[in-house]
Structures are given as C-alpha cells and as structure tokens.
Design goal:
Blueprint (H helix, E strand, L loop, with lengths): L3 E7 L6 E6 L2 H9 L6 H4 L4 E8 L2 H13 L2 H11 L16
Antiparallel strand pairs: 1-2, 1-3
Protein name: Putative endonuclease
Keywords: Endonuclease, Hydrolase, Nuclease
GO molecular function: endonuclease activity
Length: about 100
C-alpha cells in the first residue's frame, strides 16, 4: 500500500503555515521549492518543510489534514515545536531526482 503524508510548510519569516496532503512527499516539496504551481505557497513563499506525518492510506491523511486545518495557529505551532523546535527545513539534504 502506498504511503501518504500530511505536511506543514512555512516561509522564511515563519509568518505563514500551509498544510497539505500528498502521496509523494519528496516530489511535492520539490514542486513547492521550485514554485511549479501558482497558488498559496507560491504567493506567500512557503517552501520550508517544518512538519510531516506519515499514513498508510490517503483517506487517513486527508482526514488528518482536515482536522489540522480546523485548528488554530497555536495548536499548529505546538505540533511543530514538539517535533522540530528550531523550525528547521526537514527537507534539507534531500536529493530531488525525478524520472
């Protein structure tokens, strides 16, 4: 079964938190970093991966995404701070190779 992910991106000033869901985290982060698509993350320069969760099923990931999006910023920050207190880019050092 294919893994799925819920992830948080922020900008360099950490003023915005974007929440997304994907079945290919590496590819999706690459798309955000290269600004491949017009939209929220491009407009607000969200390209720093600060948090993610892995799921066995896309439906679980979508459900979790909805739950996280319904929460306030303080709760989102608490999740990030628990796993990544420095808000480091978790994708640093990832190699972006695609077919």
């Amino acid at each position: 079964m294919k893994k799925s992910y819920v992830y948080f991106l922020t900008n360099k000033n950490k003023t915005v938190i974007y929440i997304g869901v994907t079945s290919n985290l590496l590819k999706r982060v690459y798309q955000h970093k290269t600004k491949s698509y017009k939209g929220f993350t491009q407009k607000y320069n969200c390209d720093i991966l600060v948090y993610f969760e892995e799921f066995e099923d896309i439906n679980q990931a979508i459900s979790r995404e909805k739950q996280l999006k319904s929460g306030n910023r303080k709760r989102k920050e608490a999740l990030i701070n628990l796993e990544n207190p420095n808000w480091s880019d978790l994708s640093d050092g990832w190699l972006f190779y695609f077919d």
